[in-house]
Amino acid sequence: MKIRLDRTVCDGFGLCAKHAPDYFSLDDWGYASLVGDGTVPQQDRDAVMRALLDCPVHAITELGDRRPEVVHPSPGSSEDAADNLKTESNEAQWGFTR
């Protein structure tokens, strides 16, 4: 995992340094700085993701291609693809898009 911190967006809440102090430090005014080059090993991923998700101004972003895992039904499956079709009648199940 690789992350980036946009210091121009940071408002100095300090939650990132609280959750992942090995990757974020605060300057004299309370604004965050990224420690290192943004590379996060697997064992520290949870703490850094917590910092990313808790940042109220979204100053931390994850870099790279994150593609959702697509599960394709097996060829012998009798599952009808129309059952998973997104329509207005089942909109509450998949989220608001308008």
TrEMBL record:
GO molecular function: 3 iron, 4 sulfur cluster binding; metal ion binding
Species this protein is from: Mycobacterium kubicae
InterPro entries in the cross-refs: Fe-S_cluster_ET
Protein name, as recorded: Ferredoxin
Region spans: Disordered: 64-98
Cofactor: [3Fe-4S] cluster
Record-linked PANTHER family: FERREDOXIN
Pfam families named among the record's database cross-references: Fer4_15
Keywords: 3Fe-4S, Electron transport, Iron, Iron-sulfur, Metal-binding, Transport
Top-level division of the source organism's lineage: Bacteria
SUPFAM superfamilies xrefs: 4Fe-4S ferredoxins
